[in-house]
Design goal:
366 residues, alpha/beta, FAD/NAD(P)-binding domain, D-Amino Acid Oxidase, Chain A, domain 2, 2 domains, eight-stranded mixed β-sheet, 11 helices, 15 strands, 28% strand
Length: 366
C-alpha cells in the first residue's frame, strides 16, 4: 500500500453534531470508525444554539445531557416584528447551548464510545466513487465500507451537494456578547425571534451567560448595506426591539457563512456515500431545528449502514422523512420575510398565540 494512502473501515468527514452522532452510533455497534475534524480544538460556528425538545431527546439517546453542559432552559417563544410582540409557550421544554460547548461534548462522547477522532486535518477534496478523501498534506484516506459526509454547509470538492442552479441562497451571521441585566431578565427562559424584510434574527442565552445573536439574511440585502454594521444599522430602524439588542452587540466578533440553501434535501446518493446534517437536508432555523435534524440524520445513517441499506436508499428515505418539516419551515420563512404576509401572520397570532406553538410543533423531525 502507498505510504500516503491509508484505508479505514468507515470514515466520517466533519465533527459537528451529525458527524459525531454518526461516529458514536457506529462505534457503539462495534464498527471501526475514524472521524476527521478540520479544527484542532473547540470553536464557534454560525448557529442559533437552540436545542428543541427533539434535539434534547436525540442527545439523551446518545448519552449526552445538555443540562450537564450548562444549557439554559427555554420554555417560551417570543416573536417581535415592528412594534408588535407575541409570546407563546413552546410545546415542550427546549434549551440554549453554544455549538462550541455542544460539539466538544459530542466529540468527547464519540471518542469514549471507541471512535478515532483526528483533529486539525483539512480535507481538500474527495472521490465519491472511490470513497476516498485527499488531505492538505497530500495523503489520502479511503473508506473500505462506507463514507459519511458531515461537512455542514461547506462543500467538499469532488463531493459537492447537487444543488440546483439558482442564486439568492441566504447568508448566516452570528455573534455572542455580554448582555446587561435587563436583557438577561428578558431572555431568561425565552427564544426570541425577529423577522424582517429578507431575513430574520434569533436571540437566546447560552451556557456561559452570553447572548447568542444569529441572523439569516438575503445576500442582496447584505450587499446593499455594504457592511455588517450597515446592515445592523438598517435593522435597528426597521425593528425597534431588535435595535435595542443590537446596541449591546457593539464590538462583538461576527462570523459568517454564505450560500445557505434552505429547504434543500438530497434525493439520492452513491451506494456507499451517506450525506448527513446539512449535507443531507437544510432546514430554516426560524421555526425548524437544524441541530435535531443533524443528530437524527447521523443516527439514522449509521443505523441504515448497520442494517445493510445503501447510501442511496438511506438518502431517499431521509428525503421523505424530512420533507414535511422542511416544507413547513420554508412556508413560515417566506411569510416572515415578506412585509404583507408577516403583518397578517402577526395579526393572527395576536388573536391566537397557539398558532406559533403549532408552527414550532410542525417543523420537528419525527
Amino acid at each position: 500500500m502507498n505510504a500516503d494512502r491509508r484505508i479505514v473501515e468507515t470514515l466520517v468527514v466533519g465533527g459537528g453534531p451529525a458527524g459525531s452522532a454518526t461516529a458514536m452510533t457506529l462505534a457503539r455497534n462495534g464498527v471501526a470508525v475514524e472521524l476527521i475534524e478540520r479544527q484542532p480544538g473547540a470553536h464557534d460556528v454560525v448557529c442559533g444554539g437552540f436545542l428543541g425538545w427533539d434535539a434534547l431527546a436525540a442527545l439523551r439517546r446518545l448519552g449526552v445531557h445538555a443540562q450537564e453542559q450548562g444549557a439554559r432552559p427555554i420554555s417560551r417563544l417570543r416573536l417581535a416584528s415592528g412594534g408588535h410582540v407575541i409570546e407563546a409557550r413552546l410545546p415542550r421544554m427546549a434549551a440554549g447551548l453554544s455549538r462550541r460547548c455542544l460539539d466538544e461534548a459530542l466529540r468527547h462522547a464519540a471518542e469514549t464510545a471507541g471512535a478515532t477522532i483526528r483533529r486539525g486535518l483539512t480535507v481538500r477534496g474527495g472521490d465519491a466513487a472511490g470513497l476516498s478523501v485527499r488531505l492538505e498534506d497530500g495523503s489520502e484516506l479511503r473508506a473500505g465500507a462506507a463514507l459519511f459526509l458531515a461537512t455542514g454547509k461547506h462543500e467538499l470538492r469532488g463531493m459537492a451537494r447537487p444543488l440546483p442552479e439558482r442564486g439568492g441562497w441566504a447568508v448566516g451571521l452570528r455573534a455572542a456578547f455580554v448582555p446587561d441585566p435587563a436583557l438577561v431578565a428578558a431572555l431568561t427562559g425565552v427564544i426570541e425571534l425577529h423577522p424582517f424584510d429578507d431575513g430574520y434574527a434569533g436571540l437566546l442565552l447560552q451556557e456561559d451567560g452570553r447572548a447568542n445573536l444569529c441572523l439569516s439574511v438575503a445576500p442582496e440585502r447584505l450587499r446593499a448595506a455594504r457592511t455588517i454594521d450597515g446592515l445592523l444599522a438598517g435593522l435597528a430602524l426597521e425593528a425597534p426591539l431588535l435595535g435595542e439588542r443590537i446596541v449591546q452587540a457593539a464590538g462583538a466578533e461576527w462570523i459568517s457563512v454564505s450560500n445557505v440553501p434552505y429547504g434543500w434535501r438530497a434525493r439520492g446518493s452513491a451506494a456507499s456515500l451517506y450525506r448527513v446534517g446539512d449535507q443531507g437536508s437544510v432546514i430554516a432555523s426560524l421555526a425548524g431545528d437544524g441541530i435535531a435534524m443533524a443528530l437524527t440524520s447521523g443516527i439514522a445513517a449509521a443505523e441504515a449502514f448497520l442494517r445493510g441499506d445503501s447510501g442511496d436508499l438511506f438518502q431517499r428515505r431521509w428525503a421523505a422523512r424530512s420533507a414535511r418539516p422542511l416544507r413547513v419551515a420554508e412556508g413560515l420563512r417566506w411569510a416572515a420575510e415578506k412585509a404583507g404576509p408577516r403583518r397578517a401572520a402577526m395579526g393572527l397570532m395576536t388573536l391566537a398565540p397557539g398558532l406559533a406553538t403549532l408552527g414550532a410543533r410542525l417543523t420537528r423531525i419525527a
